[in-house]
Amino acid sequence: MSEKPIKDHKEYAPINWPVTAVLGLTFLAAITVVPWYGFTHGYNGWAWLFFGIFTVLNGIGIGSGYHRLWSHRTYDAHPVLAWFLAVMGGMALQNSIIIWSARHRVHHRDVDDNDRDPYSIGRGFWFAHVGWMLKDYPSGEVDYGIVKDLQKDPVSAWQHRHYWALVLATNVAMPLFLGWLTGDMLGMFLLAGVLRLVLSHHVTFFINSLAHMWGRQPYTDENSARDQHFLALITYGEGYHNYHHLFQADYRCGIRWYHLDINKWFISTCALLGLAKNRKRAPMFKVLRARLNMQFKEAAAKLEQPGVSARLKAQFDFEYQQYVDIVREWQQLQMEKVQLHKQKLAERIEAETSSLTARYRELERSLKLQHKRLALLTASVM
User: Fold this and answer.
1) Cβ distance 204 to 235 under 8 Å?
2) What is the residue-wise DSSP string for 51-111?
3) Cα-flanking dihedrals φ and ψ of residue 209, to 5°?
4) 186: exposed, middle or buried (Cβ count in 10 Å: 0-12, 13-18, 19+)
5) 60-74, pLDDT tens digit by residue?
6) Residue 113 Ramachandran class (φ > 0 left, ψ -120 to 50 alpha, else beta)
7) Per-residue pLDDT averaged across 170-199, rounded?
8) How many C-alpha atoms does 162 have within 13 Å on its Cβ side?
9) What pLDDT is recorded for position 5?
C-alpha cells in the first residue's frame, strides 16, 4: 500500500498586494518615520494619551468584540456595546467582523491542519504570524457559509458593507482631526494612527503564532495552543489559548481570579452596567476533568522512568481508578438530569435540582482534591 504524498506547502499563491502594501508600509513607517519625528519634533502629551487609549480600545474591540462576541457567541451584547466594539474592532484594520470571524471559526474547526487552517502553526512562525495574509492561499479563502448568523446580525452586516469607510474615518480622519484640535496633526497621526495600528496588528498576530508555540498545555495536548501569562498580559487575556481552544464557548480565557484577562474583566464590567448578559462558562467539572487528564498523562510518562518504586505506581493506579469512578458517576448524573427534563415533571425537577447540584459540587470537590494529590505524586517522581 503506497503512502499518501505529503503536500508541498510552498505552493504558488498570488501576492495579495493591498494587504502586503498596508502591512509593509505601516510597519516601515513605525520603525523609521515615527522615531525620526519623535527625535526631531517630539510628541505632545495628547498624542501619547490617544495612542494609549486607542491601542487598548482596539485590543478590546478585537478580543471582546470580534473574538468573544461574534466569532464564538460567548455572551450577548446590548446594541450600544455591539456598535462600540464594531467601531473599535474596525479601527484595528483586521478586516470586517464577518471575514475575521469566518476565518477564525475555520481555524478552530481545523486547527493545525496545514491544508485547511488559515494560519496553521504547522507551516511555521512566519506563516502563522503574518505570511498567510500576504498571499492568496487556498486555506485563507473566506467561507461565508460558516457565518450566516453574522450576515443576519444588523451590526456586523452594516460594518461589513461600510468597512472601508469606517477604516478611513477612524485611522485617518479621526487622528488628523484630534491632531488639529491639539496642535500637532502629523504627530497625532504618526503616534495614535500609524504606531497604534502596527502595535495592534502584531499583538493580535502573536495569538496565531506565539500562542501556538510558547507556553504550557494544562488542559489539552490535542492541538498546538498554549497558555502563557506574558502573552496574556500584552494580548488583553487572549494568551490563555490552551484553555480557549478546548472551551471556546466560554467568555473567559483566563478562568482564575489572578489571570490577566482584560477582556474578561471588560465584559464582566459591561454586565454590571447592563450592557452584556448571558455570559457562558464551561462547566467546572469539565475543566477539572481536562486538567486531570493532562496530569495523568504527565504522571504516567514520569512513572515509566527506570527506578520508580512499585508503591508509587500502585498509588497512581489507585488514583486513576478513583478518577474513572468519579467521571462515571458524573456521567450518570448527567443522564438523570436529561431524563428529568425529558419527562417534564416540574415538581420533580424543582425537588431534584438541589440534590443534583449538591452531588455535582461534591464531585467537583473530589476532583480538586485529586488534582492536589496527583500533583504531589508527580512531584515525588524525580
Assistant:
1) yes
2) HHHHHHHHHHIIIIIIIIIIIT--SEE-HHHHHHHHHHHHHT-S--HHHHHHHHHHHHHTT
3) -110, -75
4) middle
5) 999 999 999 999 999
6) beta
7) 97
8) 11
9) 40
Nearest to 147 by CA among 95, 99, 82, 87: 99
- Beta-strand pair 276-277/76-77: antiparallel
In the block, cell 478580543 appears at 63
Terminal-to-terminal C-alpha distance of the chain: 44
Q: How far is CA 297 from CA 13, 206, 286, 363, in A?
A: 41, 28, 17, 21
Domain ranges of the chain: 17-277, 284-379
- The greatest distance separating any two alpha carbons of the chain, rounded to the nearest whole angstrom, comes to 77
Question: What b/e string do you get for 343-372 counting C-beta neighbours within 10 Å, with b at 16 or more?
Answer: eeeeeeeeeeeeeeeeebeebbebbeebee
DSSP 3-state assignment of 223? coil
Q: Is 110 exposed, middle or buried (0-12, 13-18, 19+ CB in 10 A)?
A: middle
Q: What secondary structure does DSSP assign to 318-368, as a single string?
A: HHHHHHHHHHHHHHHHHHHHHHHHHHT-HHHHHHHHHHHHHHHHHHHHHHH
Global pTM reads 0.88
